[in-house]
Design brief:
Length: about 210
DNA sequence: CACCAGGAATGTA
DNA sequence: TACATTCATGGT
């Protein structure tokens, strides 16, 4: 159990409003207009799932390049990914890097949602904790990717922790323990349990920290 | 040419 | 638990 001072919680809330005032609603920015869009239909949920893999250790510009190539081949669909040879997927997603690994990971996720669940909408019937456990069982899905999917595709209130969030937390002295679960608790304890706030806050942190190099 | 970009899995101590 | 290494590309 993470115990924070009221002071620190207040600081996390204040930082959120500062970022919101500084950068505006993430849904209105080009980079985050899609991930922060809500609600999402099945096709849009599948796109988030696919992008959550492509974005691993990749610059967003190259992810978009890979996405547009997948779109041209009608492969922004988990069903179609499942019936396409890895070689073709590898070729199309090359710009995002790590393409051999990522093609396998896309297949793993597609297998889970299409064959395991019987369609991405079936995920809506699962509780957040159950869905996260199942996602983590998939080879190629760790805490961050699982939470990206939970928060942005399925609008579940889980706070996503990434490298930018760690830098942000260090910079503002929010914590010095940077493990995933600990940091997630710090943010979730400080904020109202609201997926919209979590979506926007994470996006704002990325926008803010990207601008500082 | 060196290093990074919205990680995860595996191995080691 | 906490690090180190591997994967492997395009941009700066």
């Amino acid at each position: 159990m993470v115990v924070d001072s009221l002071d620190k919680k207040r600081k996390i809330i204040d930082l959120y409003y500062n970022l919101l005032e500084k950068h505006g609603e993430p849904a209105l920015t080009p980079q985050w207009s899609f991930w922060c869009k809500r609600p999402k239909n099945s096709e849009e949920k599948e796109r988030i799932v696919i992008e959550s893999i492509l974005t691993q250790r990749a610059n967003w510009k190259n992810v978009e390049l890979a996405v547009s190539k997948l779109q041209k081949s009608n492969l922004m669909s988990l069903q179609n990914i499942l019936s396409t040879p890895n070689k073709k997927i590898e070729f199309l997603i090359k710009p995002s890097g790590f393409y051999i690994q990522k093609a396998k990971r896309l297949k793993n996720l597609a297998k889970f949602f299409v064959k395991g669940l019987g369609g991405i909408e079936k995920a809506e019937t699962l509780k957040t904790a159950e869905l996260k456990i199942k996602l983590l069982e998939i080879d190629g899905v760790g805490d961050e990717t699982a939470d990206d999917i939970l928060l942005y595709a399925f609008e579940r209130p889980v706070f996503v922790i990434d490298e930018y969030t760690r830098r942000f937390a260090l910079k503002h002295n929010l914590t010095n323990k940077l493990t995933y679960h600990h940091m997630q608790q710090i943010f979730e304890n400080a904020l109202e349990k609201d997926y919209k706030i979590y979506q926007d806050y994470h996006a704002l942190i990325v926008i803010e920290m990207k601008g500082q190099k």
